Amino acid sequence: VLGSWLLRGIDRELHPLTTLQDAMDRRDAADLTPLPPALTQQAGSSDVQRLGEALDGLLARVQHSLHAQREFAGNVAHELRTPLAGIRAQAAHALAQSDPAVWRSELQGIAESEQRASRTVDQLLALARAAEGGTALALQAVSLHTLVREVLLRFLPRADALGVDLGADGLEQAVQVCAHTALIEGILNNLLDNALRYGCGQPPRITVALQVREGHAVLSVADNGPGVDAALARQLQQRWAQGDHGVRLGQGAGLGLSIVSRYAQLMGGQLVLEPAQQGSGLVASVRLPLAGP
Fold first, then answer.
1. How far is the C-alpha of 120 from the C-alpha of 44, rounded, in Å?
2. 178 in helix, strand or coil?
3. Quick check: 215 and 289 in contact, CB under 8 A?
4. How does pLDDT run along the chain (293 residues), one tens digit per residue?
5. Residues 6+ apart with CB under 8 A from 248
6. Which residues are 272's β-sheet partners?
C-alpha cells in the first residue's frame, strides 16, 4: 500500500515534466513563443515551474537574437547598395574610356568606395553586437558640419548627373554633437538617396540644412517632390514600408527611413518627417544632442 502511494506521488511529480517534454518535442523550430501558462502555473512542483520559466527566458533570448540578425542582414543589404552602385558606375565609365589617366582616376575612386563599404560592414557588425548584447553604443563628439560637408561632396556628382540642384544651408557654423560618425553617415546617405530617388520636382531641388535649436542640432534634408501626409510619414518609419511613389518606381525595399529612425534613436535623437512649408515636398529632420563643453 505504501509503495503504491509513493508511486502515485512520484507520478504526480513527473507528469508536469512529461507534459513539458511533449510540448517541447512538438515545437516547430521557428516557434519561439512562450510556453502555455498551464504548463508552469499548474505544475505540481516549484522546480518544474522554475524549469518552465527558464525555458521561456531562453526562448525570448533566442527570439531577440534572431530578430537582431534579421535586422543586421537587412541593414547591410540596404547600406551597401549606394557604394556598390558607385563602384558599378565608375567601372562602366572606365571601361568606356581609352585614356589611362581616366582608368587610374576611376580605379582610385573604386578603391575608396570599397574601403567605405568595408568600413560600413565593420560598423554595422559592431552595432549589431551592441544591440544584441544590450550594451550602450559608444558615442563621442563629432563635428557635424564637417561630416555633412564631406557626405555632400560625395553626392554632388550623382546629383549633377540627374540635373538636381543639391544645396546646403548653415554649414558655416561649427556644430559639435554627441554621436557616432558611421550612424550620421548612414542617416545622410539614406536621406539623400531617398530624396534623389523620390523627392525631385520641377525644377528638381534638394537642400541640406543644419541648425541649432533648444540644445539640439537639427539636420534636415528637404526636397520638392510629392511629399507625404502625417499617416504615411508614420508608416514610412516602419521596416519594409513604401509609399505609392516608391512602389510605382519599383525601387527600394522600404528600409531607408526605418534605418534612419533607428540610428537616430541609438544616438538619443529623433527622426521627424514633415511636409515642406512652401509648395510640395518633404522635410526629413533628425534631432541630435549637442556635445558637452
1. 53
2. strand
3. yes
4. 444 544 444 444 446 667 766 777 777 666 777 777 766 665 556 666 666 777 777 777 777 667 666 666 666 666 677 777 778 888 888 888 888 888 888 888 888 777 767 766 765 665 665 555 555 677 899 999 999 999 999 899 889 988 999 999 999 999 999 998 888 988 998 899 888 888 777 889 999 999 999 889 999 999 988 777 666 566 555 544 444 444 343 344 346 777 788 889 888 999 998 888 776 788 999 999 999 86
5. none
6. 285
Output the nine-digit C-alpha cell for 129: 553586437
Indicate the residue type of 262.
R
Pairing of strands 165-169, 205-213: parallel
Dig out the grid coordinates for 212 from the structure: 541649432
Instruction: Report the predicted TM-score, pTM, of the whole model to 2 decimal places.
Output: 0.59
- How would you label 199-214 residue by residue, b for 16+ Cβ within 10 Å and e otherwise? bbeeebbbbbbbeeee
